[in-house]
Every structure is written in structure tokens, then in C-alpha cells.
Amino acid sequence: RKEVEQDPGPFNVPEGATVAFNCTYSNSASQSFFWYRQDCRKEPKLLMSVYSSGNEDGRFTAQLNRASQYISLLIRDSKLSDSATYLCVVKRGGADGLTFGKGTHLIIQP
Amino acid sequence: EPEVTQTPSHQVTQMGQEVILRCVPISNHLYFYWYRQILGQKVEFLVSFYNNEISEKSEIFDDQFSVERPDGSNFTLKIRSTKLEDSAMYFCASSEEHGASYEQYFGPGTRLTVT
Predict the structure, then answer these.
(1) Do B35 and A97 make contact, defined as CB atoms within 8 angstroms?
(2) What are the DSSP E strand ranges found in chain A?
């Protein structure tokens, strides 16, 4: 079983639409959860951390369900600049590295 | 805004050669990491480094690989006797602390091509 599993997409959505991504993780010892964004051939950049209570940052809302080992990201009022690959990332803690999903490719169409 | 830098941006080497990839982490950060991403694949953790020692390493990080902080600013990844399958993007990252919630900032990466 993959450690972090995501639907690879691509998701093709019109500008202004709302889009949701889901992710599941297998390691119940995971302590921290993140969504990163990666543009083509660029480095991953942190979009937001994900907290158990859910959190929002502008047009982005992230949710975590520890019991189901499930993480989600909602993007409202999508912009052309949101086109990228969205990476679900978990971390066990301590000096462990980040464990990445393969990413979901999002294409916003004008 | 401080950033992680990496050199070179692209390295081409022949199979069997040694390469050294260089990184300058953010200046007040104490924890350093290397990741790799094979084309079309996910980002994979290689190693974490703190206080001049390896803290954690993945099963990918075998005897072919080594890391070093040769001075107060650089952090290097050495790959001995490169193989074709070492071709990938290598990302360096750093963080202030290693606690679970501390963000890791990534450098722009070095694209390694082994021919």
C-alpha cells in the first residue's frame, strides 16, 4: 500500500470553479500534514499546513480526518494561476523527512 | 526573503563518475535535508542532517551517497559512482527546527543527468 495516495488527475476545471482534492495516508503515526504546490520542473512550495480542526487560508480550505487517515484541500474561485500539481505531504515527527504523495495535477481553463 | 540556493542547476555526468551537489541553506536554519524526484515520480526523502550528523536516512540513501557540511554555509550531497537511475532532480531543504510543524523550505533543485 502506498504511504500517501492521491488521485493523479488531471483535473480540468473552468476559472472560478471550486475544486476539491483528497488524499489518504497509511501511517497512523503521522503527526503533521501539509499541502504543497509544485509547478512544472520547480521545487515544492508549502501551500498550507493541515490541522485537525480544519483551517482556511483565503480561497483554500484544508481538512484532516485522523480516524479515516484522510486529508482534503478545497480551492474556491479558482484562478488560472492555481494551475499546478498539488502534493499531499505527511511527516511522522522528529528528524523524519517529509513523505510525499505523487500529486494531483490541476489545470484551470479560461 | 531568505531562500535556499543550490548549484549547479543542471549537472551532466557519465556513469561511474562522482558528483557533488551543493546547497546553501537559509542562514539561521539548523536542520538540512536532501530529497530527489525522478522525472514523473513523487518527491522522495533521502536524508536529514543536524549538528554535523545524519539524523535520519531512507533506504534509498545507501553507501553510494554521503552528505557533509564542509563549512558554515554549504551542505553537500556526494554521489559516488553514479548510475543511470540516479538521474533525477535533487532538492535541498532546510528548517529552523525539526519539530513536526516546522516548515521545510526547498531550494530550486539540481537536475542530474547520468549518461
Answers:
(1) yes
(2) 4-6, 11-14, 19-25, 32-38, 45-50, 55-57, 60-65, 70-75, 84-91, 99-100, 104-109
Q: How many helices and strands (H and E) does chain B possess?
A: 0, 11
Distance CA A65, CA A67 (A): 6
Distance CA B27, CA B112 (A): 25
| pLDDT tens column, A21-41 | 999 999 988 889 999 999 998
For A45, list phi and psi in degrees, rounded to 5.
-125, 135
Q: Which three cell numbers stand for residue A45?
A: 512550495
B113 in contact with chain A, both atoms CB, cutoff 8 A: no
Q: Residue A99: its pLDDT value, please?
A: 95
- The stretch A89-102 carries a mean pLDDT of 88
Which residues does chain A have within 8 Å of residue B89's beta carbon, measured at their own beta carbons? 41
Give the one of A42, A97, A102 whose C-beta lies nearest to B58's C-beta.
Answer: A97
Tell me what the mean pLDDT of segment B45-51 comes to: 94
C-alpha span between A14 and A109 (Å, rounded)? 5
Classify the C-alpha dihedral B89-B93-B99-B101 as positive or negative: negative
pLDDT tens-digit series, residues B64-115:
999 999 887 899 999 999 999 999 999 999 998 766 567 899 999 999 999 9
Does residue A59 sit in helix, strand or coil? coil
